[in-house]
């Protein structure tokens, strides 16, 4: 479904991505992990068009999307939630999601956009009393829910999730994991960045590891977890696949 070929990205001399080859298959939950600053968010930003790659290509369903702006990439079916939560602060919660319904994938037309937006907010578990208040009055956990609802509102084929569990309590985290499973069941392919290895290992069909902007390993969770280099640079000796 998605193919990154030799993708590189520099920020003023800092090589954030170095010739990364990376794929996501239709219908899978793919995981992207690695130490802080290893290039995970940059890769998601290149895929979603926030950054243009300096070299290399991003193909989505065999089409080169690497030079397209984010809104066109979104209209083709790729949507991202940001690590640092983003909203339209002066619009209501409902309007934030409505923006996704109205400006998402072109071929998906909703008869009742407002109802769709409400359904999605209910789906992500936001209290109804928050629907009509400005997004600036929501806390960060509520904003994460709104961000997810807005992303789903665009009817993505491929959903990119950048650390959606950050700041959640264990109970909220479990709810979010159940949501991710449900979203995949509805036919959406998912690429997620997450630091909580237990979550990645439990959810993902395939995992890719970045280190200093380079892909150092990819494969099943079991393979990645026991890879000597991954253990050395990222997981540390103590990590065990079966750890509680
Ligand atoms: N817009 C930017 N301008 C300058 N440098 C940037 C920019 N975005 C990312 N970087 C740098 O690129 C490198 C990779 O950053 P990135 O955010 O992709 O890492 P990450 O793997 O997502 O890290 P984290 O786990 O902390 O979220 C870092 O050194 C970061 O400081
Ligand atoms: Mg990041």
Describe the structure.
The protein has one domain: P-loop containing nucleotide triphosphate hydrolases (Rossmann fold, 3-Layer(aba) Sandwich), CATH 3.40.50. Helix 3 crosses helix 4 (113-123), helix 3 runs parallel beside helix 5 (140-153) and helix 4 (113-123) crosses helix 5 (140-153). By secondary structure, the chain is of the alpha/beta class. The relative contact order is 0.18. It has helices at residues 40-47, 70-76, 93-103, 113-123, 140-153, 170-185, 197-203, 221-226, 228-235; strands spanning 2-11, 14-24, 29-33, 55-60, 63-64, 78-81, 158-162, 189-193, 206-211, 214-219. The strands form 2 sheets. Strands 6-7-8-3-9-10 form a 6-stranded mixed beta sheet, with helices on both faces. 36% of the residues lie in helices and 25% in strands. Magnesium ion binds next to helix 1.
Summarize this entry quickly:
The protein is built from nine helices and ten strands. The chain has helices at 40-47, 70-76, 93-103, 113-123, 140-153, 170-185, 197-203, 221-226, 228-235, and strands at residues 2-11, 14-24, 29-33, 55-60, 63-64, 78-81, 158-162, 189-193, 206-211, 214-219.
Count all strands and give the number.
10
Q: So what's the CATH class?
A: Alpha Beta
Helix content range: 25-40%
Mind describing the biggest β-sheet?
6 strands, mixed
CATH superfamily: P-loop containing nucleotide triphosphate hydrolases
Indicate the overall shape: globular
């Amino acid at each position: 479904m998605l193919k990154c070929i030799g993708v590189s990205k520099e920020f003023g001399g800092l090589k954030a991505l170095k010739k990364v080859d990376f794929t996501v298959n239709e219908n899978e939950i793919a995981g992207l992990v690695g130490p802080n600053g290893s290039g995970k968010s940059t890769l998601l930003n290149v895929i979603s068009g926030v950054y243009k790659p300096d070299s290399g290509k991003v193909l989505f369903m065999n089409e080169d999307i690497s030079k397209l702006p984010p809104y066109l990439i979104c209209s083709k079916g790729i949507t991202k939630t940001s690590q640092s939560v983003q909203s339209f602060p002066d619009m209501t919660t409902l309007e934030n999601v409505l923006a996704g319904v109205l400006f998402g994938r072109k071929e998906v037309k909703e008869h009742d956009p407002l109802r769709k937006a409400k359904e999605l907010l209910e789906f992500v578990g936001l209290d109804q009393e928050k629907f009509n208040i400005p997004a600036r009055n929501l806390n960060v956990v509520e904003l994460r829910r709104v961000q997810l609802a807005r992303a789903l509102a665009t009817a993505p084929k491929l959903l990119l999730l950048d650390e959606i569990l950050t700041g959640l309590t264990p109970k909220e985290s479990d709810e979010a994991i159940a949501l991710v499973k449900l979203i995949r069941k509805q036919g959406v392919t998912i690429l997620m960045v997450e630091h909580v290895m237990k979550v990645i290992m439990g959810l993902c069909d395939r995992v890719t590891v970045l280190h200093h902007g380079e892909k150092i390993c990819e494969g099943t969770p079991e393979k990645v977890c026991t890879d000597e280099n991954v253990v050395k640079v990222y997981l540390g000796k103590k990590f065990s696949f079966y750890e509680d």
